[in-house]
């Protein structure tokens, strides 16, 4: 592994041999392995690949590809750069068996639910893509044993709810958790929180979570690990001193703190299997017109803000 000075506008350190990159509102992670190889966890947005390539060059040397990409799940903001990655590096992409339908073109995800409320990011979610991607021969199922290929010392837990095949990555020797979107460290529904990146342990992003019963079980599983460091798909990394009590409180009070008071999947989950979506609860059709108007205004406002703010993100260390 190349010794590199940490450039906060490119990447940030999470823990020993783990670095992260933030692109607009989502994180990806680069993990160094004992044999001097490295693994990429998630692929961010379509705009993320240049940042991944730059960080990898600084950390591991020019033109050193990852041994693999590990996906916590396949929502659009976690797979956006896969096409560019595979064209450049031709590496395998691993995910849980229950994510395969959405990564091989067989099924769309359950659609986002703007009716959950909580802020502009949620209101805009009706515009977020949920179509499957098709990785052809690159997609591979993770072993059911919990082992992660090319990542010795790490294992995964199946943590569904936000997505059917969602996983979280765990390194036991120093209790480092890469939680994906099983829970996050900002209020992802709120544009203000996305912009300010104020640290707060929150449930999975409400607008894409399609099974709240499973989501609660997953948060309890991760809280029981008592992690020392957590890195999530949205928000800044947090140490146990910062997040330990918050994570336990989220687990104990999940229904009050995470589950929305209304929403398409609150009373009834999406039903999925190895082939993808089987059935969906009825959408809240009465909200469609109002949400469409709000979403249109929101996306224009957010787009203008993000375009002007990306330089400020970099200067602030993110």
Automatic annotation (TrEMBL):
Note the InterPro entries from the entry. Answer: Metallo-B-lactamas, NDM-1-like, RibonucZ/Hydroxyglut_hydro
Per the UniProt entry, the signal peptide is: none
Q: What keywords sit in the KW lines?
A: Membrane, Transmembrane, Transmembrane helix
The name of this protein is MBL fold metallo-hydrolase
Domain of life where this protein originates: Bacteria
Q: Which organism is it from?
A: Dyadobacter sandarakinus
Q: Which Pfam families match?
A: Lactamase_B (PF00753)
User: Would the keyword Iron turn up in this protein's UniProt record?
Assistant: no
Q: Which residues form the Metallo-beta-lactamase domain?
A: 25-234
Q: Which spans are transmembrane here?
A: 289-307
């Amino acid at each position: 592994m190349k010794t590199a000075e940490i450039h906060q506008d490119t990447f940030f350190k999470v823990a020993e041999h783990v670095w992260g990159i933030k692109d607009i509102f989502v994180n990806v992670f680069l993990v160094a392995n004992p044999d001097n190889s490295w693994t990429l966890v998630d692929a961010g947005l379509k705009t993320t690949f240049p940042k991944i390539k730059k960080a990898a060059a600084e950390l591991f040397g020019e033109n050193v590809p990852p041994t693999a990409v590990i996906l916590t799940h396949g929502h659009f903001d976690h797979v956006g750069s896969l096409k560019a990655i595979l064209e450049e590096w031709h590496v395998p992409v691993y995910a849980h068996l229950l994510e395969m339908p959405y990564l091989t073109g067989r099924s769309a995800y359950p659609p986002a639910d703007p009716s959950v409320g909580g802020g502009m990011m949620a209101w805009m979610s009706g515009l977020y893509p949920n179509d499957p991607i098709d990785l052809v021969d690159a997609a591979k199922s993770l072993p059911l044993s919990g082992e992660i290929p090319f990542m010795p010392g790490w294992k995964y837990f199946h943590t569904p709810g936000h997505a059917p095949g969602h996983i979280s990555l765990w390194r036991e020797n120093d209790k480092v958790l890469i939680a994906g979107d099983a829970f996050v460290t900002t209020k992802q529904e709120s544009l203000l929180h996305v912009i300010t990146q104020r640290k707060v342990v929150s449930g999975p992003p409400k607008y894409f979570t399609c099974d709240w019963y499973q989501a609660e079980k997953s948060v309890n599983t991760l809280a029981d690990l008592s992690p020392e460091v957590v890195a999530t798909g949205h928000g800044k990394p947090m140490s146990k001193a910062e997040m330990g009590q918050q994570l336990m409180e989220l687990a104990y009070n999940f229904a009050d703190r995470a589950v929305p008071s209304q929403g398409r999947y609150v009373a009834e989950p999406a039903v999925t299997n190895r082939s993808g979506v089987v059935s969906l609860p009825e959408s809240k059709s009465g909200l469609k017109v109002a949400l469409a108007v709000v979403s249109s205004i929101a996306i224009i406002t957010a787009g203008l803000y993000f375009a002007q703010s990306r330089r400020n993100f970099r200067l602030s260390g993110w």
